[in-house]
Amino acid sequence: MRKIRTIITQDAEVDDQNSLRHFLFYANEVDLQGIIQTSSKFHWVGVPGAVKPPRKFDDDFGTKFEDKSGPFDEPYRWPGTDWMFKVIDDYEKDYPNLCKHADGYPTPDYLRSITKIGNIGYEGETEKPTEGSELIKKHILDDDDRTLYIQVWGGTNTIARALMDIQKEYENTPQWEELHEKITRKVVITACGEQDPAYKEYVAEVWPGIQFVKTLQMMSYAYAWFANPEDECKETLRADFMKKEILNTGSALAGGYCTWLDGNRYEGEGESGQFGANPNIVNEWFGAKFGFEPAKQYDFLSEGDSPTFFVLLPWGTRTLEDFSYGGVGGRYYRVADYKNSKGEPCNVWDVAKDNYTDKDGKVIRQESMWPYVATIQRDFAARIKWAVSDSFDKAEHTPRLSVKDGVDVTAKAGDEVLLCASAENPDGLENVISYKIYKEASSESVSEAVIDNSKVAEGSALIKIPENAVSGDKLHVVVSAQSTGHYKLTHYQQVIITIK
Length: 500
Known about the structure:
- The two termini are 30 Å apart.
- This protein has 500 residues and is α/β, with parallel strands linked by helices.
- It has 14 helices and 20 strands.
């Protein structure tokens, strides 16, 4: 199977820096073709003589801000660009051990060769081509027939500049219509929201059919995680887990990871952005403004951008077939009323919420990736262990789950469908196999299907299809295999039962 190919764009915010460290532990799982620094409404380097009117905007919590600086000729919360290469330097220290646990990790020199500076002048700046935009353009136009997933951790302006240059070069040629259609199918943007106007003002206007998936899940894996109910997911974001499993492991790549009140100061940030060194933020921002519990030293800070790549990793769920199918990176719905200025519908997706039962049995609506946070954190911790383990048998590795009759099954209303799964564990550990009906992803007529394990062998499940199931509807069943090891590593298979 060919790997998913992807390009990262980011604005260098502290949680982007965390996301890059996290991502590189999984760099063997994808074909990474670029790491590009861009700007956003939160970070830019400034352009001498650039003057724009002051802007008002909402941050990711809906808080109103007004930029009083006026001109864009000064840096704004700008951390520089050297940090990317420092992260790769740390990756280089862990690289030899990582390669003993999995094939396919890119060499540090390859990562350096694809790390570029994009459009960083100011919010939405697309003044001229850059090394970053040229790299994106090259891969959009290449002959590789794989989908190109472009991650957006900051603004979309460097992607927009690449598309602008393609439009400029080909719009008045005979192949433009065919090329436009090909690019629309080829490019998928997974974005941490809209952090500059470039998508709305250009991409949506000229390329409305490009899938633009807003993976922003601030309550699940970003600054607002404190608001969630107490459960095993929240435990893996607490300081105890972070210190033991992430920070104090001896991994160089994980050792640079930033957490609450850890003493780190971030280049270019004012006091309001010094989450590691300014204790007043905990009380003023979380306490007074949002009413969240105060953060404790070494608590998880944020990786708000990481869902852009969680949806790409091979967890076994089927998100990339259709973002409404859901998975470890969350479930998404097509935004029906997102249109450009010409009234054309844009291919925009946003985060769906699922029903979630907390430890007290209370059912709440929660972002759809929250139930998977413990899986994500434990898997991350296991990969960090790889970085400090010089042989395969000194660490744990994810089991591989398979379903006997495949993941696409047909059935009729009232049928009983037998699913049989098995799992191989690379470490010789036991696996616990379980089944769950994914109601929110399923069609309404089959969402009340039930699982009966009383009459079947271990590792199997009998799915009872409702009598009123409608032909063509789909029932989603998530099968999981969890290792009994320290990290409880989990692999999934998402079975779709289509009613005939």
